[in-house]
Structure formats: structure tokens, C-alpha cells
Amino acid sequence: MAQTSPEPAEPGMMDHAKPGMAEMPGMDGAHGMHGTTADGAADTPSTRAFMKAMGDMEAGMATPMTGNPDIDFMRGMLAHHEGAVAMAEVELQYGKDPEARALAETIIKAQEAEIAQMKAWLDRNGG
After folding, report:
1. Domain 70-126 has CATH 1.20.1260.10
2. Domain ranges of the chain
3. What is the pLDDT of the chain when averaged over all its residues?
4. Which of 36, 64, 77, 120 registers the highest number of CB atoms within 10 A of its CB?
5. Which residues of 72-109 are buried (b: 16+ CB within 10 A; e: fewer)?
């Protein structure tokens, strides 16, 4: 049986395998992230936006370690928080549930303050 080549990754998407990624929703252990869920749900604009946000977050968290646990922590958490804000923004763009939307707004407000704190710390500490 002939195999087709994988689709090219979208900008900002990771295109390499990591242990355990095949078990994650929307992940393809051989080719990174794609805009579908594990159960084959429709490829929608919101799915693509969530997958991009998660791919960007993972790429940011994959920054090489410095050996300084404080800097490594701040860099990893910065990418994690930026990913949370991006996902919350997708919820506000596409979501309809008032409780989910309110939580997204709360996440954005809290995470943006922490992002600013982490960036300032990194600037002061050579990160």
C-alpha cells in the first residue's frame, strides 16, 4: 500500500515527534500537530486556532535549558502562560458558553500580569 507524504506543518507548528505525543488529542507521533482531534472531529477554524496555540506553546517550552533552574523555570512558564492566553483568546473568538468565556477573560487578565512579571524578571536576571 502506498503512503502519501504528510501535510506540511502550518507556520508555528512543530514538525517532529516527541515521546507520548501520539496519545495526545490531535497529535500525530510521526509528524507533529494537525488540525484534527484523536476521534477524527471536523477540522474547524477553532480547532486549527487551538492547535496553533498549543504548537506555539510547545515550541516555546522546548527552548534549550541553560542549567540555571530559575531562568529555565521562567522561560518555560512564560511560554506556558503565553499559550494559555492564546487559547483563551480562541475561546473568546469562537466560544459561546458564558462560563467558559468568563473563565477565558479571567485567564487572560491573570496570565498577562504574570507574563509581564516573568519578562521583567528575565530582563533583570540575564534570561
Report:
1. yes
2. 70-126
3. 78
4. 36
5. eebbbebbbbbbbbbbbebbeeeeeeeeeeeebeebbe
